[in-house]
Structure formats: C-alpha cells, structure tokens
Design a protein that fits this description.
The structure is a homodimer. Chain A contains 15 helices and 18 strands. The first copy, chain A, is α+β, with helices and mostly antiparallel strands. The first copy, chain A, folds into two domains: 284 residues, Zn peptidases (Aminopeptidase, 3-Layer(aba) Sandwich), CATH 3.40.630.10; 117 residues, Alpha-Beta Plaits (2-Layer Sandwich). In chain A, strands 1, 2, 3, 6, 7, 8, 15, 16 and 17 form a nine-stranded mixed beta sheet that branches. In chain A, strands 11-13-9-14 form a four-stranded antiparallel beta sheet, with helices on one face. At the A-B interface, strand 9, strand 10, helix 7, helix 8 and helix 10 of A face strand 9, strand 10, helix 7, helix 8 and helix 10 of B. Strand 11 of chain A pairs antiparallel with strand 11 of chain B.
Chain lengths: 457, 457
Amino acid sequence: MSLDSVLARIDNNLPEALDRLLELLRIPSISTDPAFKDDCQTAADWLVADLQSLDVKAEKRQTPGHPMVVGHVDGDGPHILFYGHYDVQPVDPLDLWDSAPFEPAIEDTPNGKVIRGRGSSDDKGQLMTFVEACRAWKAEHGTLPCRITFFFEGEEESGSPSLVPFMQENAAELTSDIALICDTGLFESAVPAITTMLRGLLGEDFTITGPDRDLHSGMYGGIAMNPIRVLNKILAGLHDDTGAVTLPGFYDDVPELPDEIRAQWQGLNFNHGKYLGDVGLSNPAGEQDRTPLEQIWSRPTCDVNGIWGGYTGDGFKTVLPSQASAKLSFRLVGQQDPDKIRNAFRTYLENNLPEGFSVEYRTEKGAPASQMSIEDPAFEKARQALSDEWPRPAAYVGCGGSIPIAGYFKELLGVDAMLIGFGRDDDQIHSPNEKYDLESFHKGIRSWARILEALSK
Amino acid sequence: MSLDSVLARIDNNLPEALDRLLELLRIPSISTDPAFKDDCQTAADWLVADLQSLDVKAEKRQTPGHPMVVGHVDGDGPHILFYGHYDVQPVDPLDLWDSAPFEPAIEDTPNGKVIRGRGSSDDKGQLMTFVEACRAWKAEHGTLPCRITFFFEGEEESGSPSLVPFMQENAAELTSDIALICDTGLFESAVPAITTMLRGLLGEDFTITGPDRDLHSGMYGGIAMNPIRVLNKILAGLHDDTGAVTLPGFYDDVPELPDEIRAQWQGLNFNHGKYLGDVGLSNPAGEQDRTPLEQIWSRPTCDVNGIWGGYTGDGFKTVLPSQASAKLSFRLVGQQDPDKIRNAFRTYLENNLPEGFSVEYRTEKGAPASQMSIEDPAFEKARQALSDEWPRPAAYVGCGGSIPIAGYFKELLGVDAMLIGFGRDDDQIHSPNEKYDLESFHKGIRSWARILEALSK
C-alpha cells in the first residue's frame, strides 16, 4: 500500500477537510454549561455521521452526562484505539474575542494561516487530524491499515465524570493493543513530541493546633509556642539549600533518566529563560543539579499550594493563633508510591511538632506517575513516522501535569497510551481567540497517515 | 472626707453600676473594622453623657479616626489624668463564642460570677471601675478629692493613629501631675499590681511577589520558585534553635534585669506550668536561658500574627501562587529602637528574596518600651491603697504587652503613668468568650476610691 498516494490525497483534499472541521467548530458544544447540552448531542451526532461516511460502525452512547461516540472498523494490523474529545471550554470573557468564537474562519497571520475559533486546537481540530488521515487512507486503498476503535468524549473540559464508569462498563470493547491520544502539543511549537512520562500527584491538607485558643502576643509572646512559627519551620525544612526535598526516602523510587532520553532532551535546547521570563521569574527553583526540563518532567516536587493562620484581615491584631494550616502537593515520578510519600511526610511533620501540639489531616487521594513503556516497538515506529513528517526529529517528552485519561487506559484496560498532538504554545486554548495553525492541521493529518502506516507493519 | 462611706455606697450600688457597664458593652465599637465606625461614635457619645451626669465637663473630640472623649472636673488635690479606651477587638472566630459577643450577661461560673462579652475586660469594664469610683465619691461628698481629667480613646486596638497628634495638639490641657491607666491585670489573678515596665511593639505587614501570575504546579512545579516557600524560609530563619531572634543587632539595646527586680520577680513564684497549661501548652518557647517571667516581661520577641497565600478554600487547587503575605510583630524592651529593628528585619528579608522577587510593606507604626520611675511617692501611696483592698500586698511588675500610651505621657507631656488594672489571666481578652470577673469590677471600683483618697493627701 502506498503512503505517498495517501499523503498526496491529503494535500489535494485539504480544502474539503477544512470545511468539515469548520462545520464541527460551529457547534457550540460547551460541556460545563447546561445551556449547551443539546449542542453536545449535536456534535456527537455530527461525529457519528462523519465516521459512518467512512464505513465505521459508529454510534452515540448516552451517559448520565454528555454522550460518548464509539466507532469500530476492522482492519488487518494491530488494534488501535484513538481518543479525542468533542467538547470545548466556555468562551467568556466574550469581549476579548476579536471574532465570534463559534463562527470559525481561516485567518492570515504573520506566522502563517490559522484556524480561529473555540475548539480549533482543544480538541476538535486535533481530533479531526486523525479522522481525516483515516478518510484519505480509506479513499485511496478502500480499507484501513489497522483495526481501529474511535473513542470520543464530551466531558473532558468538565472533569470527565462519566469516563471511568464508561470505560469500566465497556472494558472489553475498548481494550486494544495501544491507545493514541491527540490532546497535547509540539514541544516549544516546533518539535514533534510523544509524551511518555506524566507526573503523579499527592495532596496533603492539614491543620496544626498548639494553644487551645487564640492568645494575646503581649501576654504570651515569648513564652507560648506559635503554631505559625512551628508550621513555617516544618515547611521550610522540606527543601534543602540545593532545592532537594528532604523527606527520608523521598528519592528512593525515582529512576535516573535513561541516557538516550537525557541526550534527546538536551537536544531540545529548552529555553528555560524564556519559559520563566514569560511569568516574571528568572532562576529555576528546583534541584540545582538537574536540568530545567528534568525539573518539570522527570523529577518529583513538593509545593505549598496554600497557607493560612492567624489574623489576615485589614489592620493589625497581635494574636498568637491557636492554629495554622497548609495545603501541600507532591508531584510524583517513576515508582514513587503516594502512600509511602504520605507516610514519610506525616512522620516528619509529627516528629517536628512540639509537645502538646496536634495535627488534623484532611486526606486527599494520591495518584502515582504514569510512565509509558517505550520498549513497545509501536513507540519507536511512531517517533520515526513523526520525524519523517516534520523538519526536526520527534522526541519522547515528559509532562509535569496529569492527563488522567492516559492513566485510565493503563489502570482500567492495561493499555499503554501514546500522547501525540500538534498544538502550539500560543494556541490560547481555554482563552479568547483560540486558534490552530493550518500547518498543525495539515501536517497533523499527514503525521497520522504515516503513523498508521508504520504501526500496520 | 470618709472613705468608708464611699466604699459602702459602692457596695450598695453595684447592681446599677453593672447595668451601666452592660449598656456600654452592647455597643460593638470595633475600631479596626470600618464597618463599625458609627458604633465607635455611639460609644463615645455614651461616655460623654455618662461623665456629664457626674458634672464633668465632657465632650467628644473628633479626630481623623475615631473620636476621643475628654472631660475635666475641678477638685482640691493633685491633678490626675485617667486614661482608658472604649474600643474593642474584633470578635472572629465568631463560632467559638458560647454567647453573642455584644449581648453581655452576668454568668455564674465555678470561680464566681463573671461579666461575659467583648470588651468586658479590655477595656470597658476596667475603664468603668474608675468612673464608678468617681460617681460614688461624688454622690457621697458632692465633690471629688482631686482635680481629674478623663481621657478615653477609641483606637487603642487599632494602633492609636490619632493619639500622638491629639496629645501634641492638646498638651497643655492633658498635662497633669500623674496619669492613671487602667488596662492591665492582677498578677496571676491574685496579687494587685502596678505595672512599671511595658514592652514596646513594632508591626510589619507585607506581601512578597514572585511570578507575576498564579501558575499551574503541573507546568511550573519544580522550576518556578514558590513565594510561600520563600516566605516560610524567611520566617523560619527568624529564630535559632534556642528560641533567640536571629536578626543582627536585635539584642544590642536590651538591658539586663537589675538584681533587685530579679529578686522581686523570683519572690512572685510565677507558676509558668499553670500559665501555659491553662491554654493547652507545656514548654516555654522563648529563649532557653531566660526565666519564664523574663520571657514575658523583660525580653524582646518576634511573632507571626498572620500568614496567608495561595488557595485556602475547600478541596484542592494545584496552584503556585504569585504572592504570599504575613503580619509580624516584635515586642521591644529597654532601649530597642523600633526603626532600627524594622531596618534589620527588612534587610534580612530583602537579602533572602530570590532574584526577581519583590516585597511590598504595609507599614505599621512602632513604639518603644516604657519604664516608669517609681521614685515618685504617688507610686508607693497607690501600692499601699491597693494592698489595703486586696488579700495580698501589691507588687511592681512588668507587662509583656504594649501600652504605648504610657510612653506617650512621659515622652509628650513629661507625666509619669501608673498602670493599675484588675484583669485576670483567664479573661480571654482578644479571644472568644472574653469575660471580666465581677470581683474585679467590684474591688476595682473600691480600689480606685482608695487610691483617689490616698493621692489626695
């Protein structure tokens, strides 16, 4: 089967592919706002019809929230599942948009043509790159190179309440050899990327209590231990002078980066000065012996997300408070076990409480890190296919945040996921004037055609 | 003139005196919160009317903040000025009160009857002990034994911003032979005391800013310096492991206690175990090489009175905040200069800010410590009068809190001040469920009658 003819067809049929995307973008499928409930149904119907036009057995599957779209098509190669989401973010503040969010259009910009409109990048434009690749392949060869399951969600922007139950109830149907997820971006808008590491998350929310009432600092200042002072000391002790987390055993299950990945990341020439400068900072704060990309992608962290205690209103109150509180989060990597880290933290905290002090925890669930096993040859095949399409070779990258769907495929179905996407840092997803570069759409479609061909072998 | 008949009248008229106090306590004159501005005016009006009922030439005198109440009455003896404050502390946390803070009532407790309500002890109840003593004297003798100036402030709990300008502008009117201040307590709830040492106070209220917006800890956790972490480290560094304050030069102007005062204090047999145990604490937190009474009365301190930053609501938000804030206070002793300590703190803070961070101060005024010269015979006369009223002889003591007014009388008017009060350690001033013992109120009124008589001779 010829890949070249598929790529040529993609190039020739780009105007029609764009028309289809604009049609989908005109449906205001805002999942978080009940006023747009019917529009979410409409978007799902549109996708079902579009998949059916490719001879995919597709149907809308209702949930307690917005429907899923699931479609299957047979093929000779491995069984691939493709995930994307058809719901979009709200559009407020509307007055900051330069055009109507649901009247999408192609615009010329100094950086080339863009598709402007809500959902163009997150995630309708990305989702359609895969569908259009399949359409071109089918038109050229009459069949698809793999067995494919299409799985489109309509609640990604509102917390995915129906996702886990649906995956559990339909586990057999959704289990595949590999999952492809198109909801991420190019690295620094230029380098094609496969996200293979996602950090986990552990939260701790707690209050320490010292004196059993608020005290007057005139009467008790000096002699009474202040819970804020105790909390400050405990939190300040969590990092050493090099930026490393001090909890005993914290780094036990943190793997060193494989040399090949380290070399790949160094080749990315990450501009951390710009990354920090864009938000008003200068120097990296993490472990000093780690590169900035490691700090974001492959190293665990500890951060205080909130702290409060004593008098915080206007003016002054010379109070020694009874209590002080904090919310902490740990980003986890490798095999770090949330329960083990939680125990290490609580042991440290409780060992540093003065006599007579107590602590109350408001427990939060922890999630371990996800790391895809890139030994599966599919990863290297996809990376090569991406490298063939784009000017720079593709890289395996990390992601500092969590993308829960990737973890669910592994946890619920035992399926590894490849996160591949073509968004750019300036796409303004979740903000006014969202756009998707025409180049992202066009080369995205071509990328999937190449990946499908590579995976089929 | 008979003292006995005055004391008898005080005993007989106690119910009416209590009714008047409850009326005053019902006015929520919280000075630090602008929402209660009108209530401060109401409290001042109430006091003016009450003084006028004693034939005192009293009036409300406006300031840029809350008004002063000033009244004069002629008499034969020395010219005495009496100072008290009619404003009160905020009442939060309201849910920890067992009754409404501004619906005062007399309660039976295992330790006797108490007057429950915000301001009952600090300072409306104390202020009224003096007014009621004058009322009884006037009713009994038709005149007062001394020439008296009444001077009531409405901003004591919010830093007294108008006090110094008012005293400067009205210096001639307010200058007297001695000032009496009723805003302190009995020593250990039992020994009548004249406070001759008062710690000063320096407040710092500030916000540090790192990144110019709130960041997502998934994208920036590890690489971006978290302002809460910076703040924790700065605050944790203010004390060393022995409890001493680490600011360079902090102890330069702190005198050692004279041997005779040290001996007197040791004779008081201060029960620090009970003092701390009463509020749920066990070990003293101050400098380990100082006695507990020194820690409260004659040693300087540093305490965080409030801290806040990041997300403090329900649940979790993985934010790296842009800012973190704190309110600090230093209790000062001896010749410690508030400006010098402020500079030392700010230098320390700014030296510990990472590159690109900034700090904004919401400046608070500082007040140095005060020490009275007890050589004036009025001190010994008052001490004897107090010893006559109470079961144990009165003592000269220190006070951990600041009563800046005492320093101002000396500094601005050249007048020594005697601090005599009847509060008890468990009055919970500045806390929920503030109370004033009925015995404090009753014997407080009787004490002032005795002191007025003693000073008139």
